[in-house]
Amino acid sequence: MKWIVGLGNPGMSYQGTRHNVGFMVVDELAKRWDIKLNQSKFKGLAGEGNVRGTKVILLKPMTYMNLSGESVRALMDFYKADLDDGLIVYDDLDTELGRIRLRYQGSAGGHNGIKSIIAHVGTQSFNRVRMGISRPQPGEIISDYVLSGFAKREQPLLQDMIAYACDSIEYALTHPFEETMGKFNR
User: What CATH code would you report for 2-184?
Assistant: First the structure.
């Protein structure tokens, strides 16, 4: 079994914001794989299916970003899931818009959702896809920036980045994560 968690905030006011690119990726995977995200489980919205012979769980925590670890822990406890079989997808200020970075360990880097996950799983070592949203302009408040939408001119980069992230995740279902990093980190 593989499980993929996209981080974001629930509610219409957060839909389409930079902080919700993890949700966008999970939504795109659900569409690609014909998995319905209609189960209220693990303090989130979940769905499961079979992809290339592998059972896959998709999850969007509904706890708000700062409590994402509660949702991840609930999924892991229910399935007795191995952390190595999981993948966390989230926004990253330190990665340029349009780029992704796959990592299997690291600090939270100031990301509250990742801080919560680290606290609930007890380690910084877990597979992740960091979705680039770039840094705000000097003087712009970071919380306002991450909760803002993407400009029209940014939409093509965003859509390409989501598709590329989905390709990397699909590849990771049947290949070691280290090999996936080598193929998709550029």
Answer: 3.40.50.1470
Rounded to whole angstroms, how far apart are CA atoms 146 and 133? 8
Tell me the three state secondary structure of residue 121: helix
pLDDT value at residue 42: 97
Global pTM? 0.96
> Token match 């380690």: residue?
123
- Helix (H/G/I), strand (E/B), else coil: 97: coil
Task: Please state, in angstroms and rounded to a whole number, the distance separating the CA atoms of residues 20 and 47.
Answer: 18
Distances (CA, A) of 4 to 10, 44, 84, 140, 145: 17, 12, 11, 32, 26
Structure tokens at 181: 């990093």
Dig out the tokens for 2 from the structure: 């593989």
Residue 67 has a CB neighbour count (10 Å cut-off) of 17
The yes-or-no answer on residue 175 being catalytic is: no
CA dihedral 180, 26, 63, 105 (to 10 degrees): 10
C-alpha of 48 from chain center: 16
Query: What pLDDT is attached to residue 52?
Result: 87
Mean pLDDT of each 10-residue bin along the chain, 186 residues long: 97 96 98 96 97 95 96 98 97 96 93 97 97 95 95 97 98 96 92
Q: Return d(Cα 112, Cα 7) in angstroms, integer.
A: 10
Q: What is the distance of C-alpha 7 from the center of its chain?
A: 5
**Which entry of 19, 111, 120, 175 is annotated as an active-site residue?**
19
